[in-house]
Amino acid sequence: MGEDSGGAESNHENKRQGFEKAFKRLEETVRQLEDTELSLDDATRLFEDGMHLAHQCNELLANAELRVNRLKTEFDKQIHLVDDKLKPDDAIQDLMQ
Q1: Cα–Cα distance between 48 and 20 in angstroms, integer?
Q2: Cβ contacts of 60 within 8 Å, gap of 6 or more
Q3: Mutual orientation of helices 2-35 and 40-96 as an angle, nearest 10°?
Q4: In degrees, to the nearest 5, what angle opens at C-alpha 31 toward C-alphas 29 and 34?
Q5: Of the candidates 67, 33, 65, 68, the residue with the CA atom closest to the CA atom of residue 50
Q6: What average pLDDT score do residues 8-19 get?
């Protein structure tokens, strides 16, 4: 069991580093396109690389957003269950006052 959770943590860390690395490469690509004089072929290649990196970053962000939304939904369900369990007690306390 410990190996599974360690694997999940390692996978999460790899994805985070993957996003950070891809985003840094995207920033460097944009800088190169803006700051240097390039041939049409080089500029086109860099633009294609940048578009690929932007797509990769967007996909990683979308996956992270989906995970956050799932966690939030699960948390909201748990809170709702706790609220449902507390309501009868609250009603009894209200009657006693």
Answers
A1: 19
A2: 15, 18, 19, 22
A3: 130
A4: 110
A5: 33
A6: 65
Structure tokens at 65: 């957003």
Listed in sequence order, the residues at least 6 apart from 49 whose beta carbon sits closer than 8 Å to its beta carbon are 29
Tokens for 73? Answer: 């939904």
- Distance between CA 60 and CA 76 in Å, rounded? 24
CA angle 86/88/89 to nearest 5° reads: 65
CA-derived radius of gyration, the chain: 24
Strand spans (E) along the chain: none
- Lowest mean per-residue pLDDT among 1-10, 20-29, 67-76: 1-10
